[in-house]
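Hey,
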Amino acid sequence: MKTIAQLALAAAIFGVAPMTLYAATDTSTAATSSESAGETVDGEVRKVDKDAKKITIKHAELKNLDMPAMTMVFQVKDPSMLDKVKQGDKVSFIAAKIGGQFTVTQIDVKQ
């Protein structure tokens, strides 16, 4: 992130408002997070590992993560989510990339 002095100098050189430069260099907004773009996806639970706080899901395409349908292991945002699912359950879930890890942020068993 740019310092205020760097922004002021750039503004003077390029003749633009400092906040315009700040907005252009700020990449920490929610819009850059795949978590904010999550959509519900169908899947089937293959394995629940409560000790490791992970779940293996055979899932449909995850468009927000640019990932084709496959079976993969996810972290879970809240370990209590693992208490409501078991192997073989049909689920709908939302996944995101958080801290470099593919993470289930929401999960519901389909009736």
